[in-house]
Design a protein that fits this description.
By secondary structure, this protein is α+β, with helices and mostly antiparallel strands. The chain folds into 2 domains: about 80 residues, no CATH class; about 100 residues, Tetrahydropterin Synthase, Chain A, CATH 3.30.479. Helices cover about 30% and strands about 35% of the residues. The chain has 7 helices and 8 strands; from the N terminus they run H-E-E-E-H-E-E-H-E-E-H-H-H-E-H. Strands 1, 2, 3, 4, 5, 6, 7 and 8 form an 8-stranded mixed sheet that branches. Helix 4 crosses helix 6. The longest helix has 18 residues. It is elongated. The two termini are about 40 Å apart.
C-alpha cells in the first residue's frame, strides 16, 4: 500500500465513531458490543451474530447462535431486532446416536402481538421407534408449538424457546408415545414483526 493510500485509509478510519449495540427487550437490552461506523445510516440493516453465551455467560448456552439486525440508531446507540435463533450443527449432530430416532418438525406460528415465526424443532428418542410413533410425536410437537404461539407475545415466546421451556414441554408430552432422549428447538426464523419492539426507545437513549 502506498503512503497516500495508507493516509486515506487512516483518515477514513479516524472519521468513524463507535456505536454501542443493544439486544432487544426479550434479551434485557443486553449490550452486544461496539462497532465503528461513519454515520448512523451506514449501520441500518447491518446484522450482528453472537452466541447466547455472550449475553448470559452460561457455558451451556454456547451452542445457541443469535442473529440480530440493526433497525434504529439514536445518538451513539444502535437498536436491534432478533432475526434468527439457531443451534450449531455440531450440537444437533451430537444428540443423534446409533439406535435412536430423529424426528423433525417445522411449523409457522403467529404470536399474540402479530409476529410471524418459523419454528423448527427436533426430538431424539431413547431408542429406535416405529414410523407410526414418529408421526405421533411429530404431531405432538407441531400441535404444541402451533397452539402456544397465539397465547404469547413475541418476547414471551422467544424467552420460552431460548430458555428451553418449549423443549421441556415437548419432552413431557411425548412421553405419552415414547420417552425422548432430548428435544430442542433447533432454529427459529422471524418472518415478520410489524409491532413496535421499542415502545420505550426514547427512555433507553
Amino acid at each position: 500500500m502506498s503512503q497516500r493510500a495508507a493516509r486515506r485509509a487512516r483518515t477514513k478510519w479516524e472519521m468513524k465513531k463507535w456505536f454501542r449495540i443493544l439486544a432487544p427487550r426479550a434479551f434485557g437490552f443486553a449490550e452486544l458490543g461496539l462497532v465503528p461506523a461513519i454515520d448512523e445510516q451506514s449501520l441500518l440493516g447491518r446484522t450482528i451474530e453472537v452466541s447466547f453465551y455472550d449475553i448470559t455467560k452460561d457455558v451451556s448456552q454456547l451452542p445457541t447462535k443469535l442473529k440480530f439486525q440493526i433497525i434504529d440508531v439514536k445518538d451513539s446507540t444502535a437498536y436491534t431486532q432478533l432475526r434468527q435463533i439457531e443451534l450449531t450443527r455440531d450440537y444437533v449432530r451430537s444428540l443423534v446416536r446409533r439406535g435412536t430416532s430423529r424426528i423433525d418438525c417445522i411449523v409457522d406460528v403467529e404470536t399474540k402481538d402479530g409476529a410471524k415465526l418459523r419454528v423448527m424443532s427436533v426430538a431424539i428418542t431413547q431408542s429406535r421407534v416405529k414410523t407410526s410413533q414418529k408421526k405421533a410425536i411429530r404431531k405432538i410437537m407441531l400441535d404444541h408449538i402451533r397452539n402456544k404461539g397465539p397465547m404469547l407475545t413475541f418476547d414471551e415466546l422467544i424467552q420460552e424457546i431460548i430458555l428451553g421451556k418449549v423443549a421441556v414441554e415437548i419432552e413431557m408430552l411425548a412421553k405419552k408415545i415414547y420417552p425422548l432422549k432430548k428435544a430442542e428447538v433447533r432454529k427459529v426464523k422471524i418472518l415478520a414483526s410489524n409491532f413496535n419492539i421499542y415502545p420505550e426507545l426514547t427512555e433507553k437513549t
